[in-house]
Amino acid sequence: MMKSETIAVKRHSFLYRILHWFIVLQVLLLLSSGFAVSEYIPLAWISRGAARSLHILMGLTWTGTITFFIYYFMMSGEYKWFGVSKIAPAFDFFIHEARSFVKGKKVKSPVGYSRDEKKYAEKIVPTEVLAWWGWVSLWTIMVLTGLALLFPESFGFINRLCYAIIPAFSKATAATRFIHLLVSTGMVIYMMIHAYASWTFGMVGSMISGSNEEPVIDLKK
Ligand code: HEM
Ligand code: HEM
Questions:
Q1: How does pLDDT run across 201-212, given as a tens digit for each residue?
Q2: What is the pTM of this model?
Q3: 17: CA distance to ligand 2 center in Å?
Q4: Range of the domain at 179
Q5: How far away, in angstroms, is 55 Cα from ligand 1 center?
Q6: How is residue 84 annotated by DSSP?
Q7: Ligand index nearest the alpha carbon of residue 42
Q8: Could you report the per-residue pLDDT of 94-112, keeping only the tens digit for each?
Q9: What CATH number should be reported for the domain holding residue 186?
């Protein structure tokens, strides 16, 4: 295996990029409208009624967008780099990264493109697998708790589960609402780490233009 030169390749399809930035926009609107209805962190930039309508409209639209995103992620083949079987090796790599960081050593990226086969030999740094499953977990909690607040009768089990986790509240939906808020602040932090990592690894350009300069891995050599 030889690894020296780089090649400009298409990294993300147009639809993938549109969906990514559309999700970012929707999450920003959800956060700002969510905090405008919040009892704990009230950022009242619009009236509570308007914020609530906007939040519910965006919440339902966003649920649709991420469902389609996940479907597209699987159908386009992107999922193969992130699948469940990649989680354990990703943890190992993360430990390796942490150890190297402490020792002051640089971690070698496994990303490479095979010019002979005209496809990626490896598309992502394994830590990205953890980032992806982190997003899926946060999204699932936000959608389920959001739907439980909107339709408490149909999603009673979510409210009961939240109440079991935090029984200090006077009613179940109050516990759900608090978890919804807590995880939304978690999302703000996660988003900042994700944006910072994408920026420092020089990946933002490829999420805009679609292409990236990748190291060539010549599999036949
Ligand atoms: C990224 C996704 C989301 C974020 C960041 C977010 C954020 C928030 C925040 C901060 C609150 C205020 C909680 C409080 O302090 O009282 C809230 C309330 C609420 N959210 Fe979300 N939310 C998201 C997704 C959703 C979804 C998908 C739905 C439903 C489809 C939803 C439905 C609701 C409802 C019904 C309320 C309560 C509004 C009220 O009682 O006036 N949210 N959300
Ligand atoms: C709510 C905000 C965001 C969400 C939900 C989100 C979600 C995602 C997801 C699910 C992926 C695919 C999995 C992965 O490669 O980790 C991804 C990739 C990516 N995101 Fe975000 N993202 C958000 C914000 C941002 C921001 C603000 C930036 C840039 C400043 C950014 C830059 C990127 C880049 C460059 C990639 C592709 C990494 C690669 O080429 O492998 N994202 N994002």
A1: 889 999 999 999
A2: 0.92
A3: 9
A4: 2-218
A5: 7
A6: G
A7: 1
A8: 999 999 999 999 888 899 9
A9: 1.20.950.20
